[in-house]
Amino acid sequence: MAATRKRTRRGIEDVSDRKAKVIKSSGEKRHIAALILARGGSKGIPLKNIKMLAGVPLIGWVLRAAVDSKQFDSVWVSTDHDDIEKVAKAWGAQVHRRSPEVSKDSSSSLDTIQEFARLNPEVDVICHIQATSPCLHPFHLKEALEMITKQGFTSVLSVVRLHHFRWQEVKKGGSVATQPLNLDPCNRPRRQDWDGELCENGSFYIYTRATIERGLQGGKWAYYEMLPEYSVDIDVDIDWPVAEQRVLRFGYFGLDKPEVVRLLLCNVSGCLTDGRVLISVSGEEMVSVNTRDTMGIRMLQRERVEVILISSSEDLLTKALADNLSQRTGCEVRQLGKDIQGEVKAMMDDKDLDWKEVAYMGNDAPDVDCLNLAGLSAVPRDAPVVAINAAKYSCHSAAGLGAVREFSEHILLLKKKAKSQMEQDRIHRNTF
């Protein structure tokens, strides 16, 4: 991976920054904080920062990368909205409740960063991460921060290399001819003969406290170059489904290896079915199962992922219903008591499995512990908030209407992604 990444740097240094470095030269460790700005009043997409992107709140992608990078002494979300605060805390962040003065449409990012710095005097370096950059990975943050901590730069911004020919804008109705800005039309270079231009991609900006207090003036600046596939900006990529495909291919999914998932535990009521039990005139109980969901189960089974359907003590299935479900899906159906986590753990012990090898699909408060512990976990679209906050993936589909199929495809996609990465690592080791 290192052979394919490239970064360069440039900058100027002033006297005040040399003084700041002298103050920290005693060996005292600097406090480095990650700060994500997430105001609730997005004009384009309401509450965009917590809108689900590939089953994860948008802000969750960058919070996961920041926490897993292990580079920060604290990780913060600055917001003015209660719902964003709840999501931020669920993803491991502290919350800076910003003041009304920096929550206006006219407020700049610098205004909020400076307020955060004033209220947190122990922080020496702030890494401002944009919530709209879901393809950020921990290694990006680690390498960029080393430019501050080891190479002496006071500001680092992320950039991407673009090969776009630019022309001067001409207002409509004017008679002025446009002019090329970065090319000679008579000698138009081929892509392979032109290095392109470096442009901000908006993923992150890292500043020392002195730089922030000066209003980002002066200092020793550098840039960190990211590859185009990681440079996804939701502010620009307004087509959400297109952005989701990019994230599913190039996003960061956490420290655990998804290829080790060997078992899916799926609730019958509220996941495989919509939770209703239909009773015929003769008293016979019936449930409705979507063929898309049963196909998803069989897709997992073909990839040697065992699927067990579970039912709680509050949703008792008759033996006839359980037998019919087992026959239709090819899965074992198990009845669990009130201690769901304990019984699931006993089941895992019998199969010699760890939590990271288990995927769990639940739909309500009794499932929260298992949703938190499982290596992969999901809830249907119509699950209550308490379950959504505990799950690692939230389906677009509702219970009984394709949610199980969607989660099955998600599991298989992550397994494929992980296997591809393992193959790349193997090639890299053999080559170098």
TrEMBL record:
Annotated catalysed reactions: an N-acylneuraminate + CTP = a CMP-N-acyl-beta-neuraminate + diphosphate
One term of GO molecular function: N-acylneuraminate cytidylyltransferase activity
Protein's name according to its UniProt entry: N-acylneuraminate cytidylyltransferase
Entry keyword set: Nucleotidyltransferase, Transferase
Database matches in Pfam families: CTP_transf_3
EC number, UniProt record: 2.7.7.43
BP GO terms, sorted: N-acetylneuraminate metabolic process
Metabolic or biological pathway: Amino-sugar metabolism; N-acetylneuraminate metabolism
Family the entry assigns: Belongs to the CMP-NeuNAc synthase family.
Keyword Transmembrane on entry: no
Organism, scientific name: Oncorhynchus kisutch
Source taxonomy: Eukaryota, Metazoa, Chordata, Craniata, Vertebrata
InterPro entries, sorted: CMP-NeuNAc_synthase (IPR050793), Cytidylyl_trans (IPR003329), HAD-like_sf (IPR036412), HAD_sf (IPR023214), Nucleotide-diphossugar_trans (IPR029044)
